[in-house]
Every structure is written in structure tokens, then in C-alpha cells.
Amino acid sequence: MLDLTRDPSTDPLRVYRYRDGIYAVDLLNAAVVHLDFFTWLAAHPSDAATICRELQLATRPVDVMLTLFKANGFVRETSGVHYVTDVAREHLVKGSPWFLGPYFGSLRDRPVTLDMLKVLRTDKPANWGSSKSEKEWSKAMEEEDFARRFTAAMDCRGIYLGRAVAKALQPGGRTRLLDIAGGSGIYACAIAAGHPDVRATVLEKPPVDIVAVKHIAERGFTARVNVRPGDMFSEPLPTGYDMHLFSNVLHDWDAPVVRRLLEKSCAALPSGGLLVIHDMHLNAEKTGPLPVAEYSVILMHSTEGKCYSLGELAELFVQVGFHDLTYTPTAADRSLVTAKKL
Fold first, then answer.
1. SS3 for 324?
2. Distance from C-alpha of 160 to C-alpha of 6, rounded to nearest angstrom
3. Burial class of 124 by CB neighbour count within 10 A (0 to 12, 13 to 18, 19+)
4. Residues 142-179 pLDDT 10s
5. Which residue of 35, 77, 107, 115 has the fewest CB atoms within a 10 Å radius of its CB?
6. 274-279/225-229 β-pairing
7. Architecture of the domain defined by 140-341
8. Which residue spans of the chain are classified as CATH 3.40.50.150?
9. Tens digit of pLDDT for each residue in 42-53?
10. Which helix (H) or strand (E) holds 204?
11. Which three-class secondary structure state does DSSP give residue 54?
12. Which CATH code fits 13-124?
């Protein structure tokens, strides 16, 4: 049985980054080849709303696209207006002797590139992995076979990331954790392993709840981590917990849904209760870090969400009733953002 208090002897950061950023090139490809975006922007410096209106693109994917290009140094933003940078003007704007458009054009029909174009125009998530045999992620998760395979994939990632969460978390005397949409329960188990006073409940809807029960039992944590069937959208969050964990959850949903989930959390937590968000977070200016901007692309492609910035979360916290935001880097470009209920 794996000891969840142990760290690996090597750093897997480069391996994670290959997987996390795998779709970023296709978003750039769609912008260069299908939209000729940089040529247009060079002639029309614009705010995000104007870009969406003039190019007939949707708000959420354009936000992800602009963040990626700012993090790469292809676009700069001043007072809300976006401009091409020198490197983009030389290499991504048509008419330059160093224009690389035809180089990208040879890959114009990559399936994920075509998916990116559709998402930019419709804001509708593409099928998971761009596979014609899969549904979009949120629908596919309702089917037992896909839910089992996807949860197993996230579980193996969580063995390393969960340990980092446990090390960074400071419960401050709190002992009852609700792991909301907690998948296999790996994060709840890792936190329990690192904090002997903590007892945890994983809130998951079928069929993932059955998968979680199995994984938790195999890890020997049944006495300290239990599973509660439930849907975070269709019912209030259960009370009786002084910590709420959203690990790799909020990034699957658009801002109005994220706000609704935070409102539910605030309603269920006692005064002084701790909200814990484990995810990849952009800086407040939304200019990076680059690996986070790249990861946001796969979320844009396959879910209704994206990576959120510290500024966006801080604004939501104030609106909902949380305060004292803290930011703690963990591992593989991830971090913890915590806040307390007023």
C-alpha cells in the first residue's frame, strides 16, 4: 500500500507540463491560420469585447486565448486594449518577411485545431479528447465506463498533488473536511494522512461515488474518509464541516456557476470555516504563468470552464462572504487559495 506521506525522489514537473499544455498549440494554430488574428489585431488594437464582436467569437474562449497570448509575449494589454508585440508583428502578422502563417497552415486541419475554432465561435465544449466516440466531458461523466476511466486518470495525478496539498494546508484546529466533487477521494485521503486529527467526507454523485468507495478502501482510509452521495448543483451542501475543499473542480465551470458553488459553500460553513481551492491559478493581471495559461486551454476546449486568476477569485470571495485570501504554491504549477467565512 502506498504511503501517502511520502514524496517521490524526483520532480515530475516537466512530465506534468507536457500533459497540461498539450492543446495550447492548437489554439495558437486556430488563431494564426483560421482567424489571422494577429494581422487583424495589428490593424485594430481592441478590448476583449470588441474582439468578440468584430470576429464573432465568444467571451470565455477569447479570454483564455488572450491570456495565452499575453503569457507568451505575443500580445500586451494597456488600459484594457490589446496590442500585438514586436515578436508577433514580425512573425505572426501577414505581410512581414518573417511571417510564419504558412508554416502553421500546413497543420490547419488538425482535429483539435478545428475544435478550437468551433469553441471560439460557439463557446460549446468539444468532445473529450476530440474523439467522435466521446461526449463532452460533463455528459460523458454520467456514463459509468467513462467516469471510471476518467476518475482513475485523475487519481494517479492526485497521488503526487494530494501530498503537496496536505503539506501546504494549515487547518488551524479545524477537523472536519468536506471534499466537494472529490473524485476518487485521493485528496481527502492525502489530507487525512498528513493531518491525523482530520476526518473527511467525499461528496460525489453516482457513478463516481462507488468508484471513490473502492479507492478509499484500497488505500486503507475507510475509518477516516467516507463517501456521501450527492450532487453539488441540485441540493444544498451538507453542514457539520468546518473545511470545504474544491480540488480541480471550479476550473470546469464558467464564472456564474463558480459563484453559485461558492455561495453554497459559504451557506454551509460555520463562521470562521475554511474554504480551500486547489487548482492552477493565474496571476491577478492574467499575464501568466505560462504553464497555467496553457492548461486553461484544455479546460476551454473540453469543459465549460477555464483557469481563474487570483483577482477573479478575490472579487468572488468578497461578493459571496469570504475574506483573508491566501495563496500558497504547491506542486506542478498548482497552488492552494484559501479564505475564511466571515
1. strand
2. 9
3. exposed
4. 777 887 787 877 899 999 999 999 999 999 999 999 99
5. 107
6. unpaired
7. 3-Layer(aba) Sandwich (3.40)
8. 140-341
9. 999 999 999 999
10. strand 199-204
11. helix
12. 1.10.10.10
